[in-house]
Amino acid sequence: MAMIRHGRAGEEVNVLEALGLDAAHTAVYRCVLQQPSASTAEIGAMLSMSVPRVRSIATELEGLGLLARQGSNRDRFVASPPSISLRPLLLERERGLTRAHEALVELGELYRRSADQRSVADVVDVVIGDDSVRQRVAQLQAASTEQVRALVLHDVALLSGEENVEEDRALERGVRYRVIVESGVLERPGWLAVAREMAQIGEEIRVLPTLPTRMFIADDQMALVPMRSQGEDRGFGALLIHPSGLLDLVISIFEEYWRSATEFLPIAAAPSSDDIDRDLLRLLLLGVTDAGAASQLGISLRTLQRRVAELMETAGVTSRMQLGAEAVRRSWV
Q1: Topology classification of domain 273-329
Q2: Residues 158 and 214: beta-carbon distance below 8 Å
Q3: Reported pTM
Q4: In terms of CATH architecture, what is 120-263?
Q5: Distance of CA 68 to the CA centre of its chain
Q6: CATH of domain 7-81
Q7: Where do you find CATH 1.10.10.10 in the chain?
Q8: What tens digit of pLDDT does each residue of 89-146 get?
Q9: In a 3-state reduction of DSSP, which class is residue 22?
Q10: Around 327, how many Cα atoms within 13 Å sit in the side-chain half-sphere?
């Protein structure tokens, strides 16, 4: 994990990173900036960097106008004043971003015109292959500005939490995430811990016993659903649905499931005995098996079943269904 710097030094680093310079280039420039002049050997010694590496970086920085050769000694480098050397680079980068934005608007207009001419068949694009589908999911999340909605099945996930870096970035941007999972998902090893972390940064999770298919909706602009029904063992593909009556239907289906799903309550980070009882009841109410609940809570199956019996006795009930109702009535969950 990169260190977070504050203050003026951090601002300099951010400027240089915005110009496309990596940490090594930044370190060399800052090193020379703080010296009247410096040789490649001196820079290498101060930064614990090899002389050939310093020489290569210094030459690149010289080409960008950030460093110059000392007039009296061509083997030594001096830093160009940042207000003079960085400003033209920043202005050029800004002009490049402006041109890119103008191109984006133009391309978007071309796409809009073609979308207006789409036939019924053009409402859906076919995405073939696991890698292509994963790439499209990442692109949709990266482009989302308002909300992402998803249905998640208990079988193998399309993207693991570690792979789905765009989700973290979107949440940081303030994009709302609403996710409905099958109850079987809660039995994946370590899933509850990850879900708890995601809930803490704003992801909303609800649970249903079963779901008909995977589904991924980015804003109200695009939806991605599997091309084939569950159980088919052929290669994976997906249908990308553009704005249309079909997309409206997909969104309505999600919203109907959302209304009927049970809110997911995160498991306590450092549970006490009372927390474990509460978490146990939550898991059982969400349909997790005894074995799955025991695994998530870090206790043995026998301990879990004994604790359930003790809770039933405390509640004065004779069945787990009654225990669930009584737990809700007594606000144990």
Answers
A1: Arc Repressor Mutant, subunit A (1.10.10)
A2: yes
A3: 0.58
A4: 2-Layer Sandwich (3.30)
A5: 42
A6: 1.10.10.10
A7: 7-81, 273-329
A8: 666 666 766 776 677 666 666 656 655 555 544 677 888 888 888 888 888 888 888 9
A9: coil
A10: 23
CB atoms within 10 A of CB 177: 20
Query: CATH 3.30.870.10 region(s) of the chain?
Result: 120-263
Whole-number Å distance between alpha carbons of 14 and 26: 10
176-182/147-152 β-pairing: parallel
Contact between 14 and 7 under an 8 Å Cβ cutoff? The reply is no
Cβ atoms of 313 and 301 within 8 Å: the answer is: no
Chain length of the chain: 333
- As a whole number of angstroms, the distance between CA 214 and CA 156 comes to 11
Tokens of 220: 């109200």
Question: Is 270 strand, coil or helix?
Answer: coil
With b for 16 or more beta-carbon neighbours within 10 A and e for fewer, the 108-119 pattern comes to eeeeeeeeeeee
- Three-state DSSP class for 78? strand
